[in-house]
Amino acid sequence: MPVKLTVTGAAAVAHAMRQINPDVVAAYPITPQTPIVEYYAGFVSDGIVDTVLIPVESEHSAMSAVVGSAASGARTMTATAANGLALMLEIVYIAASYRLPIIMPVVNRALSGPINIHCDHSDAMMARDSGWIQFFTENHQEAYDFTIMATKLAEKENVLLPVMVNLDGFITSHGVESFEMLDDGVVREFVGSWNPKYSLLDTKNPVTFGPLDLFDYYFEHHRQQEEAMTNAYKELPRVFEEFEKISGRKYDFLDLYKVDDADYIMVVMNSTASTAKYVVDQLREEGHKVGLVKPQVFTPFPKKEFQQVLNGRKGVVVLDRAMSFGKEAPLYSLVKSSLYEVASRPSLGSYVYGLGGRDTTPEMIREAFEDVLQGNLIADEQRYLGLRE
Amino acid sequence: MVPNIRDIVGYVETHDWGFTQGHRLCPGCNAPMVANWATLAAKSMGYEPVVAAATGCLEVSSTIYPFTSWNVPYIHNAFENVAATISGAEAAYRSLLNRGKIDNDKIKFIAFAGDGGTYDIGLQALSGAIERGHDFVYILYDNEGYMNTGNQRSGSTPPGADSTTAPVGKSIPGKLQLKKSIVDIVAGHEGVYAATAATAEPWDFMRKMQTALEFKGPSFIAMLAPCVRFWRIPDDSGPEVTKLAIETKYWPLWEYNMGVYKVTKKPKTFKPIKDYVAKLGRYSKLMKRQDANEILEELQNYVDAKWDRLLALEEISKDKPIRTKI
Ligand SMILES: Cc1ncc(C[n+]2csc(CCOP(=O)(O)OP(=O)(O)O)c2C)c(N)n1
Ligand code: SF4
Predict the structure, then answer these.
(1) B149 lines ligand 1 (CB under 6 A)
(2) CATH 3.40.50.300 fits A252-383, yes or no
(3) What are the residue boundaries of the Pyruvate:ferredoxin oxidoreductase core domain, all occurrences included (chain A) (predicted)?
(4) I need a labelling partner for B307 at 20 to 30 A (CA). Which of A230, A254, A379, B161 fits?
């Protein structure tokens, strides 16, 4: 029987990992990710799991070690945030190109500098072109559920890509909330066992991983990574369906909230979606036809789904918790470009919010909604919520 | 059991080499000897080597897709992380054995890296992996510079040797700093087996390799392995040059085992360091300088002092390991 647990988001993720019981986990602390690896080290220490834990000396080595481990055929995980992800980044690309199904919760935090330990999505956006699948999660339940689904997806033979499960620093990782935890046995059966086709430990059939890949093949290999992303996109609905069967929770690329008859739609990721849903409810009560779209899958980017849901609306505002200096904010630019081909384009507005953990209040969300309701949007203008100018 | 020559010859006649033909290292390069002998030592002892390598000459020249010279499982990850990569593989091995997912207990992990990937950018990962006590043999092929990128200085480049980022010029006589003593740095982790070796002494290397393979924990062998191209020496002279390095105290052969030091080759007479320096084209600009003799004298005093110190360490540590477990 599933049980209700009231714990931090970090504990929820650690429980998902405990139930998956990977062969190897690499651990290195960085706020606000630290409690995940601490919980996990506790599970190992108490003999609750029999994972081999590698308490590495840096995130660069964490990612390097998980590459060595996953290439050896072991189911492998690690977790990080912000500067840790930045230090890993060189190897993050390598992990994807070796097609290793590594799972990594990323507890989103502002990227230095200046140093700041609070939530924004600059870390995840830095890695958005690395070839990893990226999920974004609103709360404990989603962080838990997507960690389990990530394992299932990553190891599909036609996918074989690493996955980041993003959750908001402190807000989700340290906030205490209830979530429903599945039975250990149910999770174990759902993820099954991992038997890779190629392993570094298969001495009978020696394989060379990570060769020098010059101009005569590199391009083709990158083309294959793209193919794997396309396959991930195709496999995801099946993973969602299978997960619904064991949990009763129905997921999709986009979480749609009161959008059916909405003329005006806000797009926002992760925990801020909760605040936005509250504001949508308020505005609905006031008679405004507003709704919310929350992408849960960011890479592969659900372009078609965005087109379907946004085509023909009057106005759309996109909220980004990261900047892309000198260019449009990352989520906004993708949503905007996906609308290039729809029959009836909505007017669009770009809003940056919450950098470095800046509190995002219902009033700020409302401010963005008011712009769209009043037709006061300029597609080429980046606006800021809660910024002192 | 130490493999003897007959066993090894017999082995070579009937088995595949771990590192085989088709690589594109320069003719005369000493790096492939290291890869060959290390995998041979492991295989002839009945082990199944799993290899990781850092970016560098050995790696880029041996795995040009779709070809590979490696006849054993091999992984290259990046320049600075071979020790971390092998940590992960070794941890996976322990986990999968423990869970009964594999049953091959013959695997031994061997990491290869150049001096740049070891003394400099890879030092942190190496230190971390040794401190954590992973069971692997790390083999440094020390050619005293970043050769793959075209002869830049490394933490191993000796003073006065010409390199492109510390060239011997009109006002500065090349690299000013001495080489780091990497084996001492590794020995500083205490719970480790660490040794020097040289391509002139394959048998000494084989014996050390055997100790390293049977050592339950991290072990490290630093092999002086000339880059014939940038040392500006004849293609067929690598081992001859490392022989001279041993005979001039430039590269003493010794080992460290859990606190106990042992000098593994004690030449009866020594040659002056000048003989070694004069042999290497990389020093020719230095030798033309007016202050060449002063620099050589400094170097002579240094290698003498290091040798004396090594003998003293051997004496005081005799039968006195500082650790009995990792
Ligand atoms: C992070 C990073 N910095 C720099 C390089 C470029 N690079 C590749 S190999 C190399 C030098 C390797 O030198 P060494 O480890 O001594 O091996 P050798 O080439 O001498 O065999 C450098 C600088 C790299 N690949 N990665
Ligand atoms: S450049 Fe030097 S180290 Fe590199 S392959 Fe040639 S001889 Fe060997």
Answers:
(1) yes
(2) no
(3) 262-364
(4) B161
